[in-house]
Amino acid sequence: MAVSSQVPQGAEHGSAPVFFLSYARHHRAPEDKSGTAEDPDRWTLRFFDDLTFEVAELTTLPRHARPGFMDRELRVGQEWPRRISEALAACRVFVPLYTPRYFTSLSCASEWYLFQARQSAHELTSGSRSEAIIPVLWLPMPDTELPAAAQALQFDHHTLGEAYARLGFLQLIRLARFKDEYQLAIHALAREVVRVALSSAPQASLPVDFTAVRSRFENAEGLFEAAGDLVRHVGGRTPLSLPGRRPLALPPGRPMAELLAGPSESSSPSPHDSADDAVTAYIRAVQGKLAEWFASRPHQIASADFDDFYFREVHPAAKAALLRHLTPHAPDGRSARPPRLRSLPTADRPPGGAPDVP
C-alpha cells in the first residue's frame, strides 16, 4: 500500500474519522418488505453513537466533526465503496467488534486487511511500529477461535471492566442492570481510542478500493491469514538510513553464524573495513540474539525480563561484532593527557580550577 506524504483532503479540518468501527452487518429478513421491523443492528448503532459522543468529549475537534465512521447507510450505487475506502485510508484507529460472524465476513476481513496494510507500510517507511487496532468484545470469544492476525494483538479487556470482559458490550447495553458498567466501559474505551489516536496512529495512505481486495479471496479466512502474514513478515524489512548516506543494505548470502563469529583467526581486520560493514555486523548480531526472544515471547518487549536479556545478551554480542570489524587507530598528534585520579597539591592547582580536574 502506497503511503501518502499528504493527509487526505479534509483530515486537517477534523473531518477524517478518529476511529473506524468495523462490524458484521445483519440483514433484514426477506419477508420484511416494508422495513417496519426493528433494525437488527440497533444495538450496534447505539454503541457507535455512544462511543462517538465520548470520543468527541475527550478531544478538541470542531463541533461539526464526527470522530467515528460506521458503514450504516444503504449500500446503493458506487458511493459506499469509495467512502469506506477513504475512511480506512484516513482513520487513526481501527475498532473491530468481535463476534463469531465477524471472522466469517469477507467485508470485515477486507477492512481489517487494508488497515493492517497501512500499519505495515507505516512501519516500513518510518521505522516505528503502529499498533492502532483496538479489539472490542461484542460477544465473548475465546482466543483459540480467533485468527492469527487477531491473536497477535495485545489488549487486556479487563481494563474496561470485569463485567465487560465476562459478558461483552452487547449484554451490557441490552440489560438495564448493567447500565453503570456499560457507561464506565464505553468511557474507558473512548479514552483508549483517543490515546492510541494521538500516539500510535499509522500514516494516512492512498485509498484502496476494499471491494477489489475482497474479490481476490474466496473467503474471510484467507484474507485474515493474509493480514497475519503482514504482521509476521514486516519485521526486519525496514532499511537503516544513515544520515547523509544511502540506506544500508544487509549483504545477502552470508550465513548468520559467519556474521556473528566475525573474521576467522587466520585473517586480521583490514584497516580499510568500512563503517557499513561494522554496522552490518552489529545489526546481524542483534537480529540473531533477538530471534531467541521473539521466538517464544514476541509481545513482551516492554518488560523487565526483556531489559535484562538485552543488556546481558544482545548488547554485548552486538558490540563485540562491531569491534571485530573495526581497526583501532591512535589519534594523530600528541595524545591528550588522561585525567588524574588524585588532586594536585594546593600549590600546583591552576587558579579557579576544580580540585580534582587537572
TrEMBL record:
Pfam families: TIR_2 (PF13676)
Sequence ranges assigned to domain TIR in this UniProt record: 15-186
Chain residue ranges for the region called Disordered: 241-275, 328-358
Domain of life: Bacteria
One BP annotation, GO: signal transduction
Transmembrane segments: none
InterPro entries linked to this entry: FxsC_N (IPR047603), TIR_dom (IPR000157), Toll_tir_struct_dom_sf (IPR035897)
Composition skew (Low complexity), residue ranges: 261-272, 336-345
Protein name: TIR domain-containing protein
Organism ancestry: Bacteria, Bacillati, Actinomycetota, Actinomycetes, Catenulisporales
